[in-house]
Amino acid sequence: MSVDAVLDIIAAVCLIAGALLCLAAGVALVRFPDLLTRMHASAKPQVLGLLLVLVGAGLRLRDGVDITTLVLVGLFQLATAPVAAHMVGRAAYPGQQIRSDLLITDELAAHLDRITQDRRDGATTPS
Predict the structure, then answer these.
(1) Are residues 127 and 118 in contact, defined by beta-carbon separation less than 8 angstroms?
(2) CA distance 25 to 44
(3) Is pLDDT of 123 > 70?
(4) What's the rounded Cα separation, in Å, for the pair 82 and 39?
(5) Rounded CA gap, 12 and 6, in Å?
(6) Other beta carbons within 10 Å of 28
(7) Residue 119 pLDDT
(8) Distance (Å, rounded) from C-alpha 69 to C-alpha 83?
(9) Which of 44, 43, 50, 40 is nearest to 19 (CA)?
(10) What confidence score (pLDDT) does residue 70 get?
(11) For tag attachment on the chain, is the N or C end more exposed, with fewer CB atoms within 10 Å?
């Protein structure tokens, strides 16, 4: 068995595993009960699934320009997905769109009055 055949098999495994993780994230978005669990499902397995797809594509393409582009896509995804998930959670919290009975620790409960007051005042920067 040649090196190219082994790399193609590894690429196929990565592509299939990444696609299955992305599918699981999509199913979880439909099935999970509240915003925080949906947000977790959209951030964690989706990012890992995308990274596996990128690794599989990089192993299959084996070109410097293609691999550089795939690395940039992976880095941008790693940089933006957690920030987006955090901002969605922070935006939804004052609107009571989070099931507090499912929370183990609610660190924002003590600051809810300030958050809702800032939102009513139209403040865009944290105080």
Answers:
(1) yes
(2) 8
(3) no
(4) 10
(5) 10
(6) 17
(7) 64
(8) 22
(9) 50
(10) 97
(11) N
Q: What is the 3-state secondary structure (H, E, C) of the chain?
A: CCHHHHHHHHHHHHHHHHHHHHHHHHHHHHHCCCHHHHHHHHHHHHHHHHHHHHHHHHHHHCCHHHHHHHHHHHHHHHHHHHHHHHHHHHHHCCCCCCCHHHCCCCCCHHHHHHHHHHHHHCCCCCC
* CA pair distance 15, 55, nearest whole angstrom: 8
Structure tokens at 67: 């691999």
Q: What's the pTM value of the predicted model, to 2 decimals? A: 0.76
Scan for tokens 């978005």, then name that residue.
Answer: 29
Q: In which residue are the tokens 């957690």 written?
A: 82
Mean pLDDT, rounded, of the chain: 85
Amino acid at 89: G
